[in-house]
Amino acid sequence: MLPIVIHLPTGDIRDGMEEAGEVVYRSLAKGDAVKSSAPSPLEYLAAMEEAEGDPVAITPAAEFTAMYRNAAVAAEISGRSVAVVDSRTAAAAHGLVVLAAAKVAAAGGGAEVVIRAAEDAGRRAELVAALDEVEHLKRSGRVPSVALDLARQLGIRPVFRLNGGAVERLGVPRSAQAALKRIRREAMARGLGGATSSMVFHAANPERARELQALVGGSTYLTEFSPSMGIHTGPGVVGVAWLRPASSER
User: Fold this and answer.
1) pTM of the entire predicted model
2) CB 128 within 8 A of CB 187
3) How far is Cα 53 from Cα 55, in angstroms, rounded to an integer?
């Protein structure tokens, strides 16, 4: 696992460090400029050279990050046989893709079998979540300020879906409870009920995450949203990720 580096005014930290989320969200609340950077090709290369067997690198979707590109460059430089797989998703859904591939590897599967498992899981990966506020979208500059000001006044909590390297807006509920119910409805319509593996996640919002976990019937995992992604969404995000049943196509 190669951590993302988060750049703060007080210095750099690595995503995954204990209390990284608390530090990041505190800095955002103060209005600090917080950025992140993907592992470099050299970092990927070092990990590939040190790995046992035939390495398989699995990265989030190329549309969301430079990780796939950097890993692909490292694979070309490496003198070893290295495969790079784009999971076609991110965050908790990416984690489920990696876990599916790791399970096959742990059972003794070779690189080709692991690659097929990762690609299959990537095709079935789903993620539905809700933002708690829109202030950080305003900072991104990608959405008109007038629209975001109106959304803030109305208390809107956008619900979105990650799938196939794309972000799809699903709805704009006007309360936290309505957002949780919308997440459940969208998730169940896309195969969560038949999923063998799922994960509820949150960004500094454990109580609401537990509400969602109970609402969707109890997921296998409850985890914290990556602070490196929380930079763009702000705290309060809650959602669920899962792998659709193998027979499900959407």
Assistant:
1) 0.89
2) yes
3) 6
